[in-house]
Amino acid sequence: MTHFRLTIFLLLSSVLVVAQENLLSKEEAVAKALENNFGIIIAKNQIDIAGNNASLLNSGYLPTLTGTAGANYTNNESRQEFPGRFDSIGNPQADVSLSGLESQRYNAGLNLNYTLFDGLGRFYNYKRLKEQYQLSELQARETIENTMLQMFSVYFEIARLTENRNVQLEALEISKQRITRSEYAFEYGQNTKLDILNAQVDVTNDSINLLNTEQQLENAKRDLNVLLNQDLSSNFVVDTLVSFTPRITLVDYMEQSISNNVAILQTEQNLKINAYDIKVNKSGYLPTIGLTGSYGWNRSQNPDQVFFTGQVFPGTNSTQLSFGLGASLTWNLFDGGGTAVRVKNAKITYANQELLRKQVELEVNRDMQNAMAIYENRLRIFKIQEQNVVTNQNNFERSREQFQLGRITSIEFRQAQINLLNAQTNKNLAKYDAKLAELQLLQLTGQLLNIEI
């Protein structure tokens, strides 16, 4: 009856704690990480950069238009002398002085350049940038997968410590009841002071263990708050329910891993990029054809001028408009072998990328086989630990009965309690170890982001 009342008390306490603290579900944790995690935000920004690079504005297909303009202003003074010269009536020719001779020049123009053909270099480079964008998406997906795995590692650590704390709370309550029972028994002369001291020592040890677990739990919550980019003091409880993916489903995922694993997909994407690199370098063998266009406007305002006769002619103004079209062809018939070397190196890089793809496929297959074996082993250990808890629970209940009847010592009862505590904490550890092993396997198959956890 005492154990029943204790169980009811713990359940009510748990309900009150959950009511006071917000429940952070797995789905909510995933949503917050996708929205707020710094690493994921940076990865998404990298996708935006790759998208900008792969746009038409960075393709080289658009023409360039430049505008030019200029202005010039001068102010001069002029003195024209006529030594030994006479006018028509025989008088010496007078000198002519002019001041404030202003001249102004204005010009403006537009120049248009367009590459009509560049040996298909920009065509393949544009396609290469598109593939680079796809690669950036895969790199972001890898970042998200790694972050999700890290987040669930911390999330399940909080769940494990939460269950351990509940187990230790129950153990502490049982130890406190032992003190009360031992004190009553001592008053009636049924045991010695040693039984009370032993119970007090056990309460002290259980209290210390509980404090350490609570400290670890608080630290783990702060770790999760960092990953979710939320207030470090945010308090919450997590979902301790765990479900496992059926083995037949995991095997099916493994068979599809070649087309879903992010590492393999990245090697294939790099292979496509390298193929375009070869074509881009080959464009150096072909000519370049360009078109040019220009439009110009010039205006000049000239000052007064003195002719040799001594006459002053007023300044003149002039305006000119010009329009031009042109075409050019450039063909680098021989560049010293630079283009040939670049093409050869690009082909070698492509061959190396093919080898790297085969290596990655082999390593991923190995890692999946290892991950599957680890997962199945941990799942078996979890099942064994579950049965071990049942066995130790039965042993503890019988030991409690025997202890209350005075048939076993407090030391024997304490050992049964410790065995049950260890079995419960080992089961918790095995449960979350198995779940993390499953998540690691799902990541290798490329399905981590496609299933409900």
Structure description:
The protein has 453 residues and is of the alpha+beta class. It folds into two domains: 25-62 and 120-287 and 339-445, Outer membrane efflux proteins (OEP) (Up-down Bundle), CATH 1.20.1600.10; 65-81 and 94-117 and 289-330, no CATH class. Helix content is 62%, strand content 17%. The longest helix has 67 residues, at 121-187. The chain is elongated.
Summarize the model shown.
The chain has 9 helices and 8 strands. It has 453 residues and is α+β, with helices and mostly antiparallel strands.
Brief descriptors of the model:
single chain; 453 residues; alpha+beta; Outer membrane efflux proteins (OEP); 2 domains; two-stranded parallel ribbon; 9 helices; 62% helix; elongated; disordered N terminus
Question: How would the blueprint of this fold be written?
Answer:
Elements: H1 2-20, E1 22-24, H2 26-36, H3 38-53, E2 64-80, E3 96-117, H4 121-187, H5 193-228, E4 236-238, H6 247-255, H7 262-282, E5 288-301, E6 305-306, E7 312-313, E8 317-330, H8 338-404, H9 410-445
Parallel strand pairs: 1-4
Antiparallel strand pairs: 2-3, 3-5, 5-8, 6-7
Helix pairs in contact: 1-4, 2-4, 3-4, 4-5, 4-7, 4-9, 6-9, 7-8, 8-9
